[in-house]
Model the fold of this input.
Amino acid sequence: MDSIYFSEELDILRQQIRRFVKEEVIPNGDEWERQGKIPRDAIKRMGELGFLGIRYPEKYGGANLDTLGSLVLAEELGRSSFGGFTVTVLVHTDMASPHLARYGTEEQKEKYLPGIIKGDILTAIAVTEPDTGSDVASLRTKAVRSGNGWVLNGAKTYITNGVHADLLFVAARTDPDAKGSRGISMFAIERDTPGFKVANKLEKMGWCSSDTAELVFEDAKLPADALIGEENRGFYAVMENFQNERMVTGAMAMSEAETAIEITLEYVQNRKTFGGTLWDKQVIRQRLAMLASKVEAGRQLVHRAAWLDAQGRDSIKEVSMVKAFCGELVNEVMYTCQQFHGGFGYMRESTIERMVRDARILAIGAGATEIMLEEVAKRMES
Done:
């Protein structure tokens, strides 16, 4: 890709991921959708190729790249057209495991990171609760000290990878007397922890190859070293990593939008109607051209936000713009592309039908559009 933001090393990484997607994801994606999960062999294959530790230190098996490495991964996975596959991987690499990489002790990282990078350990992040979403400060799951460890009680919902994850990073209130955000901590919880169970596998509108769970903790007993980072500072860890979640979600959205336009362009150039093709109609050409222009603008917004983050600069405003703009735009693109597919676009056999369902969550998850716009508005005030 000809861009001021990407080095030769990142371009090589892009081509490697693109090849993997073409050869190993696209041919199997429909079967994974039917199975309702991504086979562990596929995750491990990504680990073998070095895709699961792009930003982690070499000493654990990672590539030690920066935010732009995550961007490349998200963009290329998004090109697969299988949103469930993409989010399964991105939750593991850029939403859950960063809590360990950023805040874990050396002992914790040595215990888990090599397996995470190899794909032997699949991770999930559990923050959302039945009554609490983006309002993290209001979560109710509690962890109290018990001897040398902790006892955890509460429930989480809408947890991506929650059914099959081996290791979950769970936010819980550890100081009931502290005001809101000040009494929350993060814990690493293994799936065989006594008192922890997957209460329900949730059925979704889209992302069918990605498992989503309701989780319950009933006197779940945790060792002392389950605490990740500083006690009562977990809220700030969640807020910091939201930036990463929202950036890769925006990147994913723009690649999905670009892929939808490519699929639709091929369709309208071949679909015969009224003595010609749909592409012969000026309204079709111009609407697709405008969407392509918007997607390119969205891509540049994502690239700049990722670059700012890689430079260590404050990019909350820009990343919030990314999440709001790209989440809405991908849905605008999908609506129009499905419209131009006509009746075929409503059939389950069409790629665009699945992509429409998958894209809807991109304006909701990792911070709904309305919340993102409030974050932007706060930073517009003088």
Notes: The beta strands are 123-126, 142-146, 149-160, 167-173, 184-190, 196-201, 212-222, 227-228, 272-273, 276-277. The chain has a mean pLDDT of 95.
